[in-house]
Design brief:
P-loop containing nucleoside triphosphate hydrolase protein; Rossmann fold; alpha/beta; GTPase activity; 8% strand; Four Helix Bundle (Hemerythrin (Met), subunit A); nucleotide-binding; 3 domains; Dynamin_stalk; GTP binding
């Protein structure tokens, strides 16, 4: 328990109370000043600062208690009540008594938080205690009307007049800084009294508003609750008691003042900080204008000579009188400040760090030069687009996404190769040049086996893709078309038109795969570009910049799409007429396909001969130097007979030359020409179509896009600044969040500066 000043001289000039006791270190007194300055920054919104909150129901004597502690007079006219928090910062000084009144605005007229608390001095310094009551009355009107300049209420003589839009209650505070030789070092906040009902014409919502305001303070763990109850009514029926118990169920932060002895002894409803009883001036005393000194003397006389108070033991006597209550409050507050200060420093650093991180996570604030900002974003977008169109190594790159479409297109074109068959339709000839062949009646109904794929294509095209099996063209069909096309040609000649028609039938099938490739690449490209637009301009989606850019880009992509479509159609149109200057390539393939089709014909038409040619090696029957490695057979007999007839040097592989001419030789020629041209043309088109799409649509997307963006956004015109400013407005939610965080950072930095000053 803090004692009165250690000096024997107890005159008001040298007497100290609470933290003003000379025995206490100056550092502890500076801590109280520090907490007061921290409250002035508004940081209590973010950090739980130590505070004493005086609460109670209306008309329980709370104002009288405040007067007895502070030594000032509060407004008491009819209908007057506390409608805002009143912070009383009391500090001992040897200087003459004086009081400074200021207003702290934390919310606007709509109850919205300002973010950074706004402290406004309200009038000159008061040196006469009699002037405090009127100043507080005017100050309360000022905080209830935050939209009106506070100077208006200092000069307004109509102290009772109501202003339109005046608030009934507010969280904005009146701050009293009271200094003098008979003042305790103490800080507390007087909260509006709890109300159970409202007068006629009042707002029932005010009951809840006051409760919410009180709870805002007392719910915090660092709030010491000074619960004021009247001696005339059972305290359990008073609303303030209920709120205090809900906020502090363990009763560790509550200090109560009441007159019953069992409570004073802490026997009933025990509290960690105990119960206190004070004797305040009555209505007659107040009407008579009793002074603060006389009221304190009357209180001392009452407790010293009035039973049963005078009979309490010395320990319980310490729970009587305003002076002892003030000392206990000072002691509790100083202990709490000393305990909380290191925690406040840590919490402040942590909050500052998190606030800075939150600010950094926000998009960059809009530039003061919106045109330059838009130009900068367009430049970034075009650079990123150029990189994507050129190709990036990422798996999700644009070129990586369209590569499968290229492979699909190439395979689709390869499958359009003509499926020529070197056998006649629905028949399978048998027999051989040397042997007799027989055919059953059902042979014509048996489909011929599929032709083996050409070996030479495996090394050039890689995997052999099966040709269109649904459109098999047999050699007799080719021959039939050739015969029907003859006009004025010589008997052994057939028109080139037959080959040309076959080629046209092939190239006609290239349009669908080409357009499918075109559509896939267009869709992939547009989706990729849309993502780039969102990435670069997405922060301005709400202001309309992203949508405007997306519209311009979409129009430009559509323009390039139509141009590319025309280019593809032009390329495919070129392929309608057979043409190539790559004669060597064409003739090489023609020779290979001629050998391929003739070989198949010979093998299928002369089965016995070709089979024997494929077995072992035949020897010269008259060459005694060679060992016979194969038994005498028809093939060797034929070779021997030819030698006897005078055909010297004839070998087995020369025998097919003795076969009669193939009646389908012209058809084989047409088939080889068509198939050879396909090899030349399909490789050409599988390069040219993707190249055209890449040149006109993919790489070509950049052409004119930047200029289109400038035109679409009116950049360069007289309205460029206003258009860009409108399009780069920050989203309301982001702007509000930024403002909130910036003001929070300002509060925290102000509090940090105060902490660094101790």
């Amino acid at each position: 328990m803090l004692q009165l000043g250690g000096s024997q001289d107890t005159s008001p000039e040298v007497r100290g109370v609470g933290l003003s006791d000379p025995k206490l270190s100056q550092s502890r007194r500076r801590l109280l000043d520090l907490i007061n300055r921290l409250h002035s920054t508004g940081v209590q919104k973010d950090i739980d600062l130590p505070v004493i909150a005086v609460i109670g129901s209306q008309s329980v004597g709370k104002s009288s208690l405040i007067e007895s502690i502070s030594g000032i007079t509060l407004p008491r006219s009819s209908g007057t009540c506390t409608r805002c928090p009143t912070e009383c910062k009391l500090s001992y000084s040897k200087e003459p008594w004086h009081c400074t009144v200021s207003l702290r605005f934390e919310t606007d007229e709509h109850g919205e938080h300002l973010g950074q608390a706004r402290n406004v001095a309200f009038g000159e310094i008061i040196y006469d205690k009699a002037g405090v009551e009127d100043r507080i009355r005017r100050a309360q009107r000022a905080v209830l009307n935050p939209a009106t300049t506070s100077r208006h209420f200092l000069d307004d003589d109509d102290e009772t007049g109501s202003i339109a839009g005046q608030l009934a209650f507010t969280t904005n505070s009146i701050c009293l800084q009271i200094t003098g030789p008979d003042v305790a070092d103490l800080s507390f906040v007087d909260l509006p009294g709890l109300i159970a009902s409202v007068s006629q014409g009042g707002n029932v919502r005010d009951i809840q508003l006051v409760e919410e305001l009180v709870n805002k303070y007392i719910k915090k763990p660092s709030c010491i609750i000074l619960l004021t109850v009247t001696c005339e009514v059972d305290f359990e029926t008073q609303g303030a008691y209920r709120l205090a118990m809900e906020a502090d169920p363990e009763r560790k932060r509550i200090v109560e003042e009441n007159n019953w002895l069992r409570y004073i002894r802490n026997e009933k409803e025990p509290l960690d900080n105990g119960w206190y009883c004070v004797k305040l001036p009555g209505t007659k005393d107040l009407t008579a204008g009793i002074s603060w000194e006389d009221a304190r003397a009357a209180e001392d006389h009452f407790f010293s000579y009035t039973s049963p108070w005078s009979t309490l033991d010395p320990y319980d006597q310490k729970h009587l009188r305003t002076r002892n209550l003030t000392e206990r409050l000072s002691d509790l507050l100083s202990q709490l400040i000393a305990k909380r200060l290191p925690e406040i420093q840590d919490e402040l650093q942590c909050l500052l760090r998190r606030t800075e991180e939150s600010i950094r996570e926000l998009p960059s604030a809009p530039s003061a030069d919106p045109v330059s900002e838009v130009l900068h974003m367009i430049g970034n977008f075009m650079r990123q687009l150029s990189m994507e169109l050129e190709g990036t190594p990422e798996e999700t790159g644009l070129l990586q996404k369209i590569q499968p479409a290229h492979e699909t297109f190439k395979k689709a074109i390869r499958t359009t190769a003509p499926n020529f068959r070197a056998d006649v339709k629905r028949s399978r000839p048998s027999g051989s040049f040397f042997g007799k062949g027989r055919r059953s009646a059902s042979d014509s109904d048996i489909p011929p086996p599929p032709m083996p794929p050409p070996d030479f294509l495996i090394h050039e095209d890689g995997e052999i893709i099966l040709e269109n099996q649904s459109r098999v063209i047999h050699i007799d069909e080719v021959m039939d078309r050739a015969k029907k096309a003859v006009t004025r040609e010589l008997p052994d000649k057939y028109p080139f038109m037959v080959t040309k028609l076959f080629i046209k039938e092939i190239t006609r099938n290239w349009t669908d795969p080409a357009m499918k490739l075109f559509d896939v690449i267009h869709n992939q490209l547009f989706e990729h570009v849309k993502k780039l637009v969102v990435d670069e301009f997405g922060r301005y989606a709400e202001s309309g910049l992203q949508a405007r850019i997306m519209l311009i880009v979409a129009d430009h992509v559509q323009e390039r799409k139509e141009r590319t479509r025309e280019r593809i159609e032009w390329l495919l149109g070129l392929e309608e007429e057979p043409f190539t200057l790559n004669a060597h390539y064409y003739m090489d393939y023609k020779d290979k396909f001629l050998a391929y089709y003739k070989g198949y014909r010979q093998k299928s038409q002369n089965t016995s001969l070709m089979s024997q040619l494929g077995q072992g090696r035949a020897t010269d029957p008259y060459d005694e130097s060679e060992e016979m490695v194969a038994p005498l057979n028809d093939l060797q007999a034929a070779l021997a007979a030819l030698v006897r007839l005078g055909f010297q040097g004839v070998k087995a592989e020369d025998l097919p030359k003795l076969l009669p001419p193939d009646p389908f030789a012209p058809a084989i020629e047409i088939m080889a020409e068509t198939r050879a041209y396909f090899q030349v043309a399909y490789k050409r088109v599988t390069d040219n179509v993707p190249l055209a799409i890449d040149h006109e649509l993919v790489r070509g997307l950049e052409q004119g896009l930047e200029e289109a963006l400038y035109r679409g956004l009116s950049i360069g015109g007289s309205e460029a600044s206003s258009v860009c400013r409108a399009l780069t407005q920050e989203p309301i939610n982001v702007s509000a969040r930024r403002e909130e965080l910036v003001k929070k950072r300002e509060r925290l930095e102000s509090a940090k500066a105060e902490l660094l000053g101790i």
